[in-house]
Amino acid sequence: MRVGFASSCAVGLAIAFLFGAAPTARGQQRTTSTRRIPVTKDRPTRPAPSPVATSRVNQDSINAVLAERARQDSIAAAERNRQDQLARQDQMRRDSIEVAERNRQDSIAAAETARQDSIARAHNSARSEESLRLARRNNSGFYIGVAGGSTMPMGDIKTNAAAGYDMGWNVTVPFGWDFGRIPLGIRFDLAMDNLMAKANLLDAFGNPMRNVAIYSGSGGLKLNVPLFRTASRFYVMGGAGAHRITGYATAVDSTQTIMKAKTNVGWYGGAGVNLRFGRTAFFVESRYINIDAKQPAGFAYDKANYLPIILGIQF
Which of 35, 62, 72, 187 has the smallest C-beta neighbourhood within 10 Å, fewest atoms? Predict the structure, then answer.
């Protein structure tokens, strides 16, 4: 019961309060000003921090900032080192690839150069062989030449103090045929050798001695030996010939002529060098010639020996 009574009293007071406050509120609304009045709230004052605590807090903040900065710098340095290491490794890898590629290209170039050199050597060798074959072919077959030089008397025809002869001169026309597949050739010569009479000597008829001219036609074989890998050659030769000795006195006022001279046989042997230049060759040679000289009265020798040394050109 007490509780119900108290509740009823509370409700009645609340209603009376509401009805009493309403006219007052309406009166206040009529006299309200639009001007704002500033209101200041008093705040409780705090005690000022002590200087020691503030200084400690600032130093700790600075230390924290420096530590953080050092940590960030360390991280950045580590990252830079890592990137540098990666860059170095990548550069080393690229350098290694570049070196390997360069070595490969050098090996390919060296192999190609060696191949080209081998081809060039083979080509040069083949061309040299072909040139040598052509040159030797040009040095085979028919040939003719002309030569001249000196003729030296040998044996009694030189040493006879009463009717001897001195060195003279020679003219020769050689011709023949050299075989291409074998080192042999056929050689023919038409020659004239002139021997000079010694001064202040008289012949058997009391006349001053005259020069002797020997006309020869000879033929024989020639053996050719190539000089290294060239078309030039060294050769030896030998054969027989027919000779007519002229120019000596057959009487007081008569001289032996080629038409009246007796033909004598003889033999020869010699050697020479043939230097080939294209289709032309130069040669130098010497031959020892022995003649069975059975002449009419006026020529005091049964044998005539002489040695021509000649230089010539061959076509």
Answer: 35
